[in-house]
Q: What sequence folds into this?
């Protein structure tokens, strides 16, 4: 079964059809996707700005990273769950849009960047995180995260925009 | 002049027709500006509200959080208002009968009212009664999230 056939199957399933045709459920899921985005990316934005030395530069990085982590992960969980539902509901159309694959690609790159940061730097944040100017690699990770997630949002917003054309 | 007449006048004004006649890609840029503004504003509100609720960046004093997020809050609000007006004006009359449009602006009015009165008053004092701080944080966050939710619903019921 090809990817397009699989998308069509999801799209035409009872669940996918019910979601797509529901008056309140679909906008509600869209709304949650948006709120999750503001929570996860908004807070991640503050973490990235701290890494760049632009937000609370006198505060040790660990004291920004650790207390915000559960909120960040919670937000991302909401985005992923609602994102999957939104995909199921409109899979047949979305799978034909190149911008959807750009979005997935940017998410993958942002994930790799976050994983690299976590493994290489995040674990011993106590050793380097107390300075206001941080190591170049750390600042680079913050900048990369900001850029990639912005591209994810741009590509994501273009999905419904291009679906209606 | 009634509100509907005002909306009609805005939409049919030279400016309204000019913005409405711009390329569709321009609409996408406006909507992206609206989302960027929303992220900045909601993240600033969230960080401050969590602090009021005794969550999030607890080690940072509230006044410090308030001070360091103020610029982002105002940048976000400015982006939202400018992009919002440009989205609204060329299609003003189509929003008139949309219940979620009015719900959004009632919630926005309440959110701004709380922000400029209770929220500011509480945020200016670090040593608050805890229940007042928590109630303010919860109220402010709920109202702003309500604005975002109602806003997202507008487009589905146009």
A:
């Amino acid at each position: 079964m090809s990817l397009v056939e699989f998308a069509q199957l999801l799209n035409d399933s009872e669940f996918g059809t019910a979601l797509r045709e529901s008056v309140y459920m679909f906008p509600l899921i869209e709304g949650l996707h948006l709120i999750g985005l503001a929570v996860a990316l908004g807070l991640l934005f503050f973490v990235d700005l701290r890494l760049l030395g632009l937000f609370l530069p006198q505060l040790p990085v660990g004291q920004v990273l650790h207390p915000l982590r559960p909120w960040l992960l919670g937000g991302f969980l909401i985005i992923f769950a609602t994102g999957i539902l939104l995909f199921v509901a409109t899979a047949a159309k979305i799978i034909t849009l190149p911008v959807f694959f750009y979005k997935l690609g940017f998410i993958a790159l942002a994930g790799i960047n976050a994983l690299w940061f976590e493994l290489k730097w995040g674990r011993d944040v106590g050793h380097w995180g107390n300075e206001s100017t941080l190591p170049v690699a750390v600042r680079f990770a913050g900048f990369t995260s900001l850029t990639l997630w912005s591209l994810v949002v741009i590509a994501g917003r273009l999905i419904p925009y291009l679906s209606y054309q | 002049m009634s509100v509907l007449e005002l909306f009609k006048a805005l939409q049919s004004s030279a400016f309204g027709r000019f913005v409405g006649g711009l390329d569709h890609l321009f609409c996408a840029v406006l909507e992206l500006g609206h989302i960027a503004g929303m992220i900045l504003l909601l993240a600033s509100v969230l960080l401050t509200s969590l602090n009021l609720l005794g969550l999030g960046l607890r080690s940072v004093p509230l006044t410090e959080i308030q001070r360091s997020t103020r610029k982002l809050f105002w940048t976000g609000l400015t982006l939202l208002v400018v992009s919002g007006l440009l989205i609204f004006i060329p299609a003003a009359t189509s929003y008139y009968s949309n219940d979620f449009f009015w719900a959004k602006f009632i919630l926005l009015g309440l959110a701004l009212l709380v922000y400029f009165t209770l929220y500011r008053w509480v945020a200016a004092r670090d040593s608050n009664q805890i229940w007042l701080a928590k109630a303010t944080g919860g109220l402010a966050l709920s109202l702003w999230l309500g604005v975002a939710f109602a806003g997202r619903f507008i487009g589905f019921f146009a």
